[in-house]
């Protein structure tokens, strides 16, 4: 597998892709000892240098795909920077080395609930693109009575300012007085789409909480303003939803990557804890268990009596 040089350099964090193209065109980048060209592709194992200094890099496939689930509270905006200095959803996210978090969809300042963040831009784009029809589920509190006729109209579809829109489903969740809760599902992420759909029937949304995006459900134990990271299995399910292959990358490189590779190449008995597995294997085959390990590892062996005490080397006065 190979990847364009300027894309790799930009991901390392040395500058934007356009700036890296200028650096390459200036002859400051070399690959395997030869001056690189703009658009040149680089592979794993190639030696990459800028101004003579070696650069550690990873191809996109080797980078661990990461996804965060964030519980957005009311009052935060979905932007990295705000001229009015209002709190943003990015303020509470963890730092990610040599990479950045990409937000999947948006929620307006008064809405709450599930927001996804990933370091994989392709995954984010596919999850947001209308052609993939990824479901978004919301719990909505509505002021007013949703009649059967209104429900049928919203499921069949209405014409909004930016085109037709509809709910895939509407489920009554109960409520008291004029406030009723509904669970609704849409397959697009247009600006204030859920609110505008209800407004088309002269109903006002007083609360809006996103509870699901695709295969990811907002955890009950997650508090507002907090995040959790999905494990690889859940990320692979989410990626498969938009026809992306799982990544095998660990996010490790250099010495850490070589150590991990060596561990996977060793037989099971040679890994940590392998002694017990080997002992069980020997016992199942009828072999006598080895006695190389102490029966009680908490007991410290006593010092043999014939061991001479180590000399105490004191600091000598300097010779005059």
UniProtKB/TrEMBL annotation:
The keyword Isomerase is annotated on this UniProt entry: yes
Stretches assigned to the RNA-binding S4 domain: 3-64
Pfam families recorded: PseudoU_synth_2, S4
GO cellular component entries: cytosol
UniProt enzyme class: isomerase
A biological process from GO: enzyme-directed rRNA pseudouridine synthesis
InterPro entries: PsdUridine_s_RsuA/RluB/E/F_cat (IPR042092), PsdUridine_synth_cat_dom_sf (IPR020103), PsdUridine_synth_RsuA/RluA (IPR006145), PsdUridine_synth_RsuA/RluB/E/F (IPR000748), PsdUridine_synth_RsuA/RluB_CS (IPR018496), RsuA_PseudoU_synthase (IPR050343), S4_RNA-bd (IPR002942), S4_RNA-bd_sf (IPR036986)
Biased composition (Polar residues): 289-298
Molecular function terms from GO: 23S rRNA pseudouridine(2605) synthase activity; RNA binding
Keywords: Isomerase, RNA-binding, rRNA processing
Superkingdom, natural source: Bacteria
Cross-referenced Gene3D superfamilies: Alpha-L RNA-binding motif, Pseudouridine synthase I, catalytic domain, N-terminal subdomain, RNA-binding S4 domain
EC number: 5.4.99.-
Record has Transcription regulation as a keyword: no
Positions of the UniProt region annotated as Disordered: 263-320
Catalytically driven reaction(s): uridine(2605) in 23S rRNA = pseudouridine(2605) in 23S rRNA
Task of the protein: Responsible for synthesis of pseudouridine from uracil-2605 in 23S ribosomal RNA.
Entry similarity comment: Belongs to the pseudouridine synthase RsuA family.
Name of the protein: Pseudouridine synthase
């Amino acid at each position: 597998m190979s990847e364009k040089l300027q894309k790799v350099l930009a991901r390392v964090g040395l500058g934007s892709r356009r700036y890296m193209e200028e650096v390459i065109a200036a002859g400051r980048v070399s690959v395997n000892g030869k001056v690189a060209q703009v658009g040149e592709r680089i592979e794993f194992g190639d030696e990459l240098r800028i101004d003579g200094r070696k650069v550690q890099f990873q191809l996109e496939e080797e980078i661990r795909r990461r996804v965060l689930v964030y519980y957005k509270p009311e009052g935060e905006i979905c932007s990295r920077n705000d001229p009015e200095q209002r709190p943003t959803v990015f303020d509470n996210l963890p730092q990610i080395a040599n990479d950045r978090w990409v937000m999947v969809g948006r929620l307006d300042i008064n809405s709450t609930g599930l927001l996804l963040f990933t370091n994989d831009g392709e995954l984010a784009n596919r999850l947001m693109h209308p052609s993939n029809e990824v479901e978004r589920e919301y719990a909505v509190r509505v002021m007013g009575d949703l009649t059967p006729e209104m429900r049928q109209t919203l499921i069949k579809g209405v014409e909004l300012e930016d085109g037709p829109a509809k709910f895939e489903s509407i489920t009554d969740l109960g409520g008291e007085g004029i406030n009723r809760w509904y669970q609704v599902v849409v397959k697009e992420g247009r600006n204030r789409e859920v609110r505008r759909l209800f407004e088309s029937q002269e109903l006002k949304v007083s609360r809006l909480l996103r509870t699901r995006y695709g295969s990811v459900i907002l955890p009950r134990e997650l508090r507002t303003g907090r995040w959790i990271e999905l494990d690889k299995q859940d990320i692979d399910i989410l990626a498969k939803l938009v026809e992306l292959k799982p990544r095998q990358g660990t996010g490790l490189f250099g010495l850490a990557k070589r150590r991990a590779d060596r561990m996977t190449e060793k037989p099971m008995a040679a890994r940590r804890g392998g002694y017990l597995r080997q002992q069980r294997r020997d016992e199942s085959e009828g072999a006598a268990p080895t006695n190389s390990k102490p029966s009680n590892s908490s007991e410290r062996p006593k010092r043999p009596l014939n061991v001479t005490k180590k000399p105490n080397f004191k600091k000598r006065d300097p010779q005059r």
